[in-house]
Amino acid sequence: MQPLVGIIMGSKSDWPTMEHAAEILDKLGVPYEVQVVSAHRTPDLLFDYAKSAEGRGIKIIIAGAGGAAHLPGMAASQTPIPVLGVPVQSKTLNGLDSLLSIVQMPGGVPVGALAIGKAGATNAGLMAAQILGLQDSKIMDAVKAFRKQQTDTVLSNADPRQS
Ligand SMILES: Nc1c(C(=O)O)ncn1[C@@H]1O[C@H](COP(=O)(O)O)[C@@H](O)[C@H]1O
């Protein structure tokens, strides 16, 4: 199936975070591709990846990186398709460095910055599905079903003392 979302990350070590984006896309039936691409370590590959994404049918890029997280911003600089940035939680500064690197883009080159870590990766996957759902009713129905199930789960477990 033609991937609609490109999940990229600065290092293999980011996968335990970024797999949560992949997991939610699997759940919602959104086809995606996954690749390690680094603005710092593989700059030519990043430029090739971002420049070719639109032409290859990718609609949204989810880019996760930690520390000096330049990957989402540099990807955004090379493509007109939306880029969602996930700050990976770094060991030294707990991901605050990643968050600030991703969120503080200069005007004119936006990156949609999500929360640090697992919640951000999950929400990047969900947001990608919500954007795609504007043009694809099957994906939007899957998003609505996910939301309903989430709400039902909370409502049916309202007593915090019960497991
Ligand atoms: N922030 C970036 C970029 C980039 O922005 O291009 N490339 C790698 N990295 C980050 O370096 C951290 C440590 O990487 P290693 O675990 O490979 O040493 C990772 O979180 C990665 O995202």
Automatic annotation (TrEMBL):
The keyword Isomerase applies. It catalyses: 5-carboxyamino-1-(5-phospho-D-ribosyl)imidazole + H(+) = 5-amino-1-(5-phospho-D-ribosyl)imidazole-4-carboxylate. InterPro entries: PurE_ClassI, PurE_dom, PurE_prokaryotes. Pathway: Purine metabolism; IMP biosynthesis via de novo pathway; 5-amino-1-(5-phospho-D-ribosyl)imidazole-4-carboxylate from 5-amino-1-(5-phospho-D-ribosyl)imidazole (N5-CAIR route): step 2/2. One of its GO terms (biological process) is 'de novo' IMP biosynthetic process. Keywords: Isomerase, Lyase, Purine biosynthesis. Residues 3-154 form the PurE domain. GO terms for molecular function: 5-(carboxyamino)imidazole ribonucleotide mutase activity; lyase activity. Pfam families: AIRC (PF00731). Substrate binds at residues 11, 14, 41. Its EC number is 5.4.99.18. NCBIfam families: purE. Belongs to the AIR carboxylase family. Class I subfamily. Catalyzes the conversion of N5-carboxyaminoimidazole ribonucleotide (N5-CAIR) to 4-carboxy-5-aminoimidazole ribonucleotide (CAIR). This is N5-carboxyaminoimidazole ribonucleotide mutase. It comes from Hahella chejuensis (strain KCTC 2396). The gene is purE.
